[in-house]
Amino acid sequence: MLTKSSTESVRQQNSALVLSALRRSGPLSHTDISAQTGLASATVSVITAELERALVIEKSEQPAHSGRGRPRVFFSQRRASGYLIVVRISSDVVQYSMIDYSGTLIDRLEEPRNHGVAGTAPFARSLLDALDRLALRSRLEKAQVLAISISSKGIVDSERPRLLWSPVFGNEQIDFAALLQPHWSAKVTLNNETLLVAQALGLKADKSGAGTFRALAALSLGHSIGVGVARKDRFGELEVTAPNFGHMLHSPNAGLCRCGSYGCVEASAGFYGILRTAFEVPPDTIPAKFVPLAEMDKIAVSARQGNRMAGYAFRQAGIALGNGLSRMLSLYDRMPIFITGPGTRYFELLQKGIDEGLAQSHQVRRQGPPDISIIFDEQRLVFDGHLDRALTDIDNDIAASRVVSGSAAASRQEA
């Protein structure tokens, strides 16, 4: 039994290696797959034949470069092998995307969030309705969707998957597995949005070929404040986490946060915190759930024109961010910081405060400030993070199912 179990584990691992290579670099030839995975040519032949029979991958031919000789055969994912739905829940909109097995976007719809309707029950109904419409528009049966990957700002229980707290719904929790599984057979996953940003950035840095990537942090600025950290573990694998940065204590005398505590980083650096400081609103005022970008733009214009309180609001936000980053670096060690989110449009107003906050750290004073880069297209990073995690999960499930089906066929032959 131990030998059989070990054999199945090796088969599953090898199949996953092949699918991972195709996901990372495909389409690939037989020789390319063998080189990238380290698997013997005969093993690659067996695995690709199994996956092709199962309609998971497919062949294509390219003429030889010289125009003579046999064409080269390449393997790639079969696009219709299955589908993924990505759901991004943000403060102002919910975005639904349908993706095929190759990672190609085939349809997308967006619905603005109705801030006048409170509670998770109306949202749950609109979510189920939107998923049904997306499948209908894409002319797909629900059974063809293998995974539904959801993201939100806030605190998530990714194992369940359950949204425990969010700036959108507060303490009202959503159990997405319980909500969706009566209607969908797809695997349901939930991730913190800024974790997905760090996932995409870490994957890109790891693929850059420099060989020096160790760690990075993604700081998302906007209605909420979030951080994702991507690091290489001791085995060289990418490990991504999302510490609860926005609700880390900045100053006990600072304003009321949306989480109900006083003095969080977000209470000073989130859009509602900047608005509250700029208009000298009492710190115990209940925070606004949503601040339109147009309103933030007005405060920014005023700050750029020399308005004292508007400029002070952005500087105080920057100090809160800088202090929080300095504490994080003390725990994780020095790493580059990538700043994303809608708040990047005000970075020059925040920068002086960020530098001031960072300089208060002993570690930063000794080692120097971290490299800071601005990336404006956060939405693309979130989407890429979804694709990498969800499609890798699908690949691993397929590899496991091939082992199970292969074992069943072997058992029938033995009988």
Descriptive account of the structure:
This protein is of the alpha/beta class. It folds into three domains: 2-77, Winged helix-like DNA-binding domain superfamily/Winged helix DNA-binding domain (Arc Repressor Mutant, subunit A), CATH 1.10.10; 81-185, Nucleotidyltransferase, domain 5 (2-Layer Sandwich); 209-376, ATPase, nucleotide binding domain (Nucleotidyltransferase, domain 5). The protein contains 13 helices and 16 strands. It has helices at residues 2-25, 30-37, 41-53, 120-137, 176-180, 193-207, 265-269, 271-278, 293-304, 308-332, 347-359, 362-367, 378-414, and strands at 28-29, 57-62, 72-77, 83-89, 93-100, 105-112, 145-152, 155-157, 162-165, 174-175, 187-192, 215-220, 226-232, 238-241, 337-340, 372-374. The strands form four sheets. It has a five-stranded mixed sheet, sandwiched between helices. The chain has a five-stranded mixed sheet with strand order 14-13-12-15-16, covered by helices on one side. A hairpin with a 3-residue loop joins β4 and β5. The longest helix has 37 residues, at 378-414. The radius of gyration is 24 Å and the shape is globular.
